[in-house]
Amino acid sequence: MSCHKKAYITTPIYYVNDIAHIGHAYTTIIADTLARYSRMSGLETFFLTGTDEHGQKIEESAKARGKTAQAYADEISATFKTLWDDFDISYDKFIRTTDEAHKKGAQKAFTTMHAKGDVYKDVYKGHYCISCETFFPVTQLVDDEFCPECGKSTTIVEEESYFFKLSKYQDRLLAWYEKNPDCILPRNKRNEVIRFVEGGLQDLSITRTSFDWGVKIPENLNDPKHVMYVWLDALTNYITALGYGEDEKDMDFWPARVHLIGKDILRFHAIYWPAFLMSLDLPLPKHIAAHGWWTRDGEKMSKSKGNVVNPREVADAYGLDNFRYFMLREVPFGGDGDFSQKALIDRINSDLGNDLGNLLNRLIGMSGKYFEGRVDSELVSRYYQKELDEVNASLAKLEPMLFEMQIHKYLEELWRPLTVANKSIDQYQPWRLMKEGREEEAMALNGLIAAILAKVSVMLHPVMPDVCSKIATALGFVIDNSSWNHLIQEHGLLEHFTIEKIPPLFPRIEVPLLEQAIPNDTQSKAPKPTQKEATTQKSEGIAMIGIDQFFQTSLKVGTIVDAQEVPKSKKLLLLQVDIGEENPRQVVAGIKEWYSATDLVGTQACVVANLKPAKLMGLKSEGMLLAAKDSNGLSLIRPETPKTAGTPIG
Ligand code: ME8
User: Is the peptide bond before 137 cis (omega within 30 degrees of 0)?
Assistant: First the structure.
């Protein structure tokens, strides 16, 4: 972290011509995560989001709906604000470019740039894409007409316009990129920007006269038909929100620690905005971080396809924190991401359910069974210093990853301590320690697991605030700056406490909870599940089958004749199971967390005998063992009394 004790974090301000979709939610959730982390780590933090309400595109959308631009902007802006409020986004200010204070600040910026000699009047002649609110020279158009960004037809504009001397700043911009290798993240995006600027910058038209839904240019210019170009108006929001040109009361938050944006608007933020700031003699932002694009089930989202992912629906169905975790973990920052329910369900069941939720359940189970829920950390260091060192080493790597926008790596690294915890239980086997009268060690092991859970929940809190607060409550502490200091900075442990039993945090999800997006042309033909069908599936995860279908499964009693650990796997055992055939079947089973190889040999299990062979970690598996798993762990299903190997079940 820099020595600047304040952190200013922003999202783009969203256009009010559409309601929020997963892309908007993604940017906002990343920014929210950074803001929450900043606050937790003791920085005074200002987190800004809001709406971009001027320009030709909004004016036309409003007209098409028979509304005034202001009424239309009020309506859509409110839907963004309500969504962020419902999502508990921790913004400090929600700015609207129709706010009076913003308009005054934007005019002040215009005046300052003008006074500096950076603004002149001329005639603009060229093509304009209303959808992108961008001017394009003919050389950049597709077939001399279409927008190179969105493919829509451009309009020819010939009007009087004020220009900003962007070309004057070309060298200073290049010097800035050069001196600040992290000013644009990910770094490869910076190279793209540099190449573009090296190609030569033309002065930028910064006013329009052919419509009037915009901020008027300053009155003293005596040119009332000019409104500001929407991007000049919009970009200045980052300083007007801090009081620029008005009371300046929060300007000490400037420069921004990070402007979070999507890659589509990098040029505006990495070229125009720093040039404007240079003209205003203001410092430049520390980082401009551009993330990639979300698609759905491999396809571009669009209203006409009807496949736009509605973030509220996803969060309602799968849980807000799960959705947040998924988006941040699934895609390397800067890369494009694909939303599919399958990927989301996998993340929830596997990372969250198996690795995190299950660990808490194991701790609740062990401390309940052996110590009436008490957990005491006093002897953790005596017995488990090695594990603690490993965990603390992982945690120490995290903070820089977050502010370098390596958020997926942050989460990946944060899962290492969970692996240490799960592995320690398997290795030290609390049930064995208790059987051998080594109670002290068993208690210390619980203390270790509790400490790991506590540390992980502190560092995961910015991503999953609600879930992590629940974990902290179960462990008898509160996540805040002082617990962050104690558990993360000072490598501390939890105090003595009695664990609180809480319901499982990540109930397993068996079937998609949302209707799949259906391409428009087949929508009418596809039978939709009735509400009742959908909820039956949801609550039980079961589809009805006939008896004949059931008997297609060949179930047999098997005797486990050999069992080995699979090297490098924390979950798998390699079993040889006699099911009455000439040779035993090789079965790879994910049961190592609950059974040791030696205990299994000679026991029986129920085997699915006609599964297509599969490969797991390169090992052939020729069957599957039936098992039942709940919050207390997993048990194999076995005949009550031994049966001859190969006996059919049914
Ligand atoms: O551009 N995947 O507003 P906007 C990922 N008002 N992110 C996406 C996305 C997708 N499919 N679609 C949109 C504007 N986004 C201007 C910004 S800032 C001074 C002015 C996200 O409503 C992404 O962050 O078109 C993108 O930059 C932003 O939404 C654009 O929102």
Answer: no
